[in-house]
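Request: Give me one sample?
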Amino acid sequence: MKVLVFGNSGSGKSTYARALAAREGLVHLDLDSIVWEPGKIAVQRSAESVIADLQSFMDSHPTWVIEGCYGELIQAAAVHCTLLVFLNPGIEACLANNVRRPWEPQKYSSRKQQDAMLTNLQEWVAGYYDRDDAWSYRAHREIFDAFTGPRIEHREREAGAYAI
């Protein structure tokens, strides 16, 4: 089983992916862990390094669950997945989930530092349906609609309430 989970920030991707990984014994990759420079906030690694790390992860594990919002990486991994899962619960659910998000020590050195980024994150999340970038609803919808293999779209649910 190779599952690719994607959607807006706050849609429940990490919660869903961790639960699925635990239940099925899958190796889990949060794309944030390869996209951003370690120990730095909002500093992206080179595209070449990120793609190389993604490919290495997929080549190294016979089964996995990968999750993230990065359209270009979702497209790259989609050709290898056996199930595509689009979490699309709506803006209100994503915004509420971000407020309840536990501290992510792998991304921020303190809860205070994470909380300081919340306003920027919420503004970015609120623009999901209006933006026209690779991390937008438009890009995610195109990826989902073009995928010819098994796929699931979950809508109007809070994180943790999706059927896995």
